[in-house]
Amino acid sequence: MTTRYTLISVAGQRLPHAVVRVTGEVEEAFTHNLRWEPSDLLSRVPNESDWSTRELTGPEDHLVSIVRTIRGRRHHSSVYPQYYAVFKDAADVVDLDKAYLLLRERGRYHEQKYTGIQTWSGSDKLYRLTSGRDCLEEYVSVSAAEAEQVQRRLDQRYQEGT
User: pTM for the full model?
Assistant: First the structure.
């Protein structure tokens, strides 16, 4: 069964309204709620004069854009610590369970990576990500509570040896 992706944009807004995927008869949308949910957006497009659509061959770039922007708005501030989940594949940013690394910024130019079982060590990974040196990976801001969830998952992986 093939899956078709459609981007819905709103006139005057830089961030897409949604990425819609249709597999068979099932329509789901990835919106600013940052999760795939049942959708009827495509049937509403004709009634929304400021909406436009575009077929996508792959949704990854648009999903990353939505996730990074919305998470940045929600979690990034001048208050430290700041937390970031890191992913090997851009498409994985929609699922925090797929983060392979957790970073903590404790102040300007003071970053650490989580090495497991409540242990942090110095790192320059965030610098490498933001400077484009590690351009094949993606990162997103996460809340302190989400960082704790990622820590637990990473601890479980470390203990399982995966």
Answer: 0.75
